[in-house]
Write a structure and sequence with these properties.
mainly alpha; single chain; two-stranded antiparallel sheet; about 500 residues
């Protein structure tokens, strides 16, 4: 016995058994996913929806069996597939996104969000865990309806590629809606704001459900082969998926920034996402242009669409709080446009607008080499960025001219953006009528972002020349450049005051 003890004591210690693959994956798994999935599976809502969905699919399958039994050569597969898909869509495109919204909104209402932050997961991991947990629950619903959807294939009238296409597009739409719903829970802090967000989200999810069912019916009725023969089907589908996922990423990063601390570099994610989204759009647009060069009107549409997108998203980027936290000031350079601060956000948006304009001018040149373009096309392409920069600069300048922090707050400046654009679109045509001129008079509507853009895109056939000329466009660009310079100086001054205080 003593010898055995001596031998055991003198032997080298055994190596601990390494954990298996499942154990390592479990350690890397977001703990919030496990918590939310367990909590969701224990809820009454999950089992009620799961039971009603299975009961509906079971009843439909009995109806399908009775129908095909009387008619051996029936082709009712498309109708029953859509019926089964409606049962799944009610859960996927309404129940799951709204439950994800309520999960995060409840954390903020009950003030348990601080406890999640103290776990050290961080806003991105927490939001990623919320989204992933409800996608797991959506997978459970889909696995239950999957056999019924496959059963519709054996009823004839629909092929497997069509079924897979509808399910893949539906899964992408589900991910996007879930991300949008989770991000919507971070928008408002007060009770009235949350109630408004709740109502808007309910209406949005209802419309998304209706549109998804219309698209599913169209694809299942036409079939994959018929839809694939349509010109531009794959291009439209790919562009839709790219837009959807890029906007989902942008919204996700924006929500994570809203939940981050002021001492963190919270603007890096959303500003990087916006920049990469624009670069990806530029690459895809250039590739499509090289594949099939369209007319010059496509360059005008690209310029207007891109500038409108940058104006709407840029007003949120350029209305960041003034200054930086002390921890972020070290090593800050003038070109560090991804760091917090209103002035850096404004400069980033202006550079993106100018870069998109250069791209559209290059695409217009490609179209011109194929079929020639007129002065009117160039005016239309260059007018949209001028109005975008002008109406991005005006609310920043107006809100920061008074020495009042309330008027310079992000919410007030965003309201000013829409108010100034609306006033310019309504008052300038009214002013032209009061002076016995036409409502679309070019001079009176020179700074009107709606009528002015339409005038630059119009052609006067009586004079056989464009309705607007390069001199008027240069005037708009001069006003926009002066407004942008004044807004930049106002932002710089306010940031210096914020650092000094």
């Amino acid at each position: 016995m003593s010898a055995l003890a001596t031998d055991t004591a003198g032997s080298a210690p055994r190596e601990e058994a390494r954990p298996g693959v499942l154990a390592r994956l479990g350690d890397r798994l977001n703990p919030l996913v496990v918590k939310e999935v367990r909590q969701g599976l224990r809820s009454r809502l999950f089992w009620v929806c799961f039971g009603l969905m299975l009961l509906s699919c079971f009843i439909l399958s009995l109806v399908a069996y009775a129908t095909t039994r009387d008619d051996g050569l029936s082709t009712h597969g498309q109708s029953f597939f859509f019926s089964f898909y409606v049962c799944l869509a009610m859960v996927h495109f309404f129940i799951i996104p709204y439950s994800a919204y309520r999960s995060l909104a409840r954390e903020r209402e009950d003030e348990t969000w601080v406890l999640l932050i103290l776990t050290g997961l961080g806003p991105r991991r927490i939001l990623r865990g919320k989204v992933s947990s409800f996608l797991v629950q959506a997978g459970l619903y889909a696995s239950a309806v999957g056999p019924f959807l496959l059963f519709s294939y054996y009823l004839n009238g629909i092929d497997l590629p069509t079924i897979l296409l509808v399910l893949v597009l539906g899964a992408s739409w589900l991910v996007f809606l879930t991300v949008v719903a989770v991000c919507a829970a971070t928008l408002a802090d007060g009770r009235i704001g949350r109630a408004m967000v709740n109502l808007v989200l309910l209406g949005t999810l209802g419309l998304s459900l209706m549109y998804s069912l219309i698209a599913a019916w169209f694809l299942s009725d036409q079939g994959y082969r018929s839809a694939a023969r349509e010109d531009g089907f794959f291009i439209f589908t790919g562009a839709f998926l790219c837009v959807m996922f890029s906007y989902g990423w942008l919204l996700f990063e924006t929500a994570a920034a809203r939940l981050s601390l002021v001492t963190e570099n919270y603007t890096h994610g959303p500003r990087l996402a916006l920049t990469l989204q624009l670069l990806l759009s530029a690459v895809l647009l250039t590739g499509l242009w090289l594949m099939d060069t369209p007319g010059s009107g496509a360059a005008e549409a690209a310029s207007i669409t891109g500038c409108l997108h940058l104006a709407l998203t840029g007003i949120f980027v350029a209305t960041d709080v003034d200054g930086q936290a002390r921890a972020l000031r070290a090593g800050t350079r003038p070109w560090s446009l991804l760091r917090p601060g209103a002035v850096r956000g404004f400069r980033l948006v202006v550079l993106l607008v100018l870069g998109w304009t250069a791209l559209c001018c290059g695409l217009l040149g490609l179209s011109g080499s194929a079929g020639g373009f007129t002065e009117q096309h160039l005016l239309s392409v260059l007018a949209a960025p001028a109005y975008a920069i002008l109406f991005l600069s005006l609310p920043l300048l107006v809100g920061r001219l008074p020495r009042s922090d309330r008027l310079a707050s992000p919410a007030v400046v965003r309201v000013l953006f829409f108010a100034l654009a609306g006033l310019a679109g309504a008052l300038l045509p009214l002013l032209a009528v009061l002076f016995d001129q036409r409502a679309d008079d070019p001079l009176f509507n020179l700074l009107n972002p709606f009528m002015g853009l339409a005038n630059f895109n119009d052609y006067d056939y009586s004079l056989n020349e464009p309705k607007m000329n390069l001199g008027l466009l240069a005037s708009v660009w001069l006003v926009a450049a002066l407004a942008a310079f004044a807004a930049d100086r106002a932002l710089v001054e306010r940031e210096r005051r914020a650092h000094a205080s």
